[in-house]
Amino acid sequence: MNVFTPEQLVSAQQGNITTLFALTNQAFHGFQKLIELNLQVAKSTLAEGEASWQEALSGKAPEAFLTSQANATQFVAEKVLSYNRHLYEIASGTQAEFLKVAQAQYEQHNRSAQSLVDGLAKNAPA
């Protein structure tokens, strides 16, 4: 006795493929956001480094340069915290989207399992 019809198998495979592509798209979207964040950080770091070197080579008093470097250290710490916050937002957003897809897949499997049990119950011998 065959429990599954070919249409049911095709439908299940279509659902699996849809889920696979949904998860893959979410992963790439998160990866794209991460790359954009890293490019933005690299670009601003280069600009700030150039400005720092221009200031160092401008011939100001060493005390002024040291003071500016001390202030820059605090600024870098704030930028690291900001980067970590953005990284967390990207990761948590991607995870939330994965959970949505997983929840939908779980509900679909529950419906399929229930319909299978119902079908078996209807076709069970007396």
Structural overview:
The protein is mainly alpha-helical. The protein has one domain. It is built from two helices and no strands. The protein has helices at residues 6-56, 62-123. Helix 1 (6-56) packs antiparallel against helix 2 (62-123). The two termini are 15 Å apart.
Number of strands: 0
Q: Report how far apart the termini are.
A: 15 Å
- The count of helical stretches stands at 2
Can you tell me the residue ranges where pLDDT is under 50 for at least 5 consecutive residues? none
Rg from Cα:
28 Å
Helix and strand content put the structural class at mainly alpha
Main beta sheet strand tally, sense and closure: none
Sequence of secondary-structure elements: HH
Average pLDDT, rounded to a whole number, is: 85
- Mass-distribution shape: rod-shaped
Count of the domains: 1
Structure keywords:
single chain, 126 residues, mainly alpha, 2 helices, rod-shaped
Question: Would you spell out the secondary-structure blueprint of this structure?
Answer:
Elements: H1 6-56, H2 62-123
Helix pairs in contact: 1-2
